[in-house]
Amino acid sequence: MSIQMNREHVKEVFRIYTDHYDSTDEKVRLKIDHTYRVAELCERIALSAGLREEADLAWLTGMLHDIGRFEQLRRFGTFMDAESVDHAALGGDILFREGMIRKFLSDDREDSLIETAVRVHSAYRIPEGLDGRTRKLCAILRDADKIDILKVNVEIPLEEIYNTTTEALRNSQVTEAVMDAFFEHHCILRSLKKTPVDHVVGHISLTYELVYPESLKIVKEQGYLNRLLHFASDNPKTREQFAQIREEMERYLETTMARKQ
After folding, report:
1. Nearest Cα to Cα of residue 213 among 166, 143, 157, 154
2. Shortest CA distance to 111 belongs to which of 128, 96, 94, 124?
3. CA-CA distance, 165 to 77, in Å (whole number)?
4. Per-residue pLDDT averaged across 74-91, rounded?
């Protein structure tokens, strides 16, 4: 193990911290549950990649990655970064500028790596110039986070997530720019999303960014991606668009998983 860490202590510190917020609020509970799932996914992906000595560190980044979400919700009443604050940067500040990291971990040898992982976990791309080990751990966290976001987008009403109405969601079309970006096989920029259904396609596109073979395996295993791909629209044009999106994603998964095996 690269660091001295007690998982039960980390969980207890996290519980004490989140107890300062209203756990009866569905949004608070959502992020608490998401945190534990992401931590578990981080460990699974690390182990699948043969990174046994890094499994604890990967798990810890999962536990810490969304610390900023709770203050974001308290201060701004939303999880929309574009309408409030970069939650990853806020989390990094809480942990490392305000010193909260020492409540979780007395060992400071991995502070730089942990801070980088927290700060870049929701960035459009991992920045250039990171050492190989840091890049691997950042990629593991980002994969785990994206996998669980697919789950959240199936289990939580999309109207609530996207702050829209059922009528608007089921009747909107995917904009041309979002369709183009999807077929280019990369994550869709927030600035391109103009309609409620654009956000659905944006979350589906997170699959393109998954790095580890185990991550793709988990996505197939869980089935949440497939359910998003079968989004039910009342708009005939949108139904055609999703038929194309399904076909393209199925082709991508088949070829990518075969290449990574």
Report:
1. 143
2. 96
3. 19
4. 93
Tokens of 157: 């009403």
Q: Which two tokens stand for residue 83?
A: 């309408």
For 148-201, give the DSSP string. Answer: HHHHHHHHS-HHHHHT--HHHHHH----HHHHHHHHTTSPPPGGG--SHHHHHH
Task: Count the neighbouring beta carbons within 10 Å of the beta carbon of residue 54.
Answer: 24
> For the whole model, what pTM was predicted?
0.94
Cα–Cα distances in angstroms (integers) from residue 177 to residues 122, 182, 191, 201, in the given order: 22, 9, 10, 11
Contacts of 159 (CB under 8 A, 6+ apart): 165, 166, 169
Mean pLDDT of 242-257: 95
**Mean pLDDT for the stretch of residues 33-46:** 98
Question: Could you tell me the two tokens for 88?
Answer: 């990853």
For the chain, give the number of residues. 261
3-state helix, strand, coil in the chain (%, to 5): 70, 0, 30
First CA to last CA distance, the chain: 27
Q: Give dist(CA 69, CA 136) in Å, integer.
A: 24
CB of 45 closer than 8 Å to CB of 143: yes
Element counts in the chain: helices (H) and strands (E): 15, 0
* pLDDT given for residue 4 in this prediction: 81
φ, ψ dihedrals at 100, nearest 5°: -65, -20
CA 163, 166, 170, 173 torsion-angle sign: negative
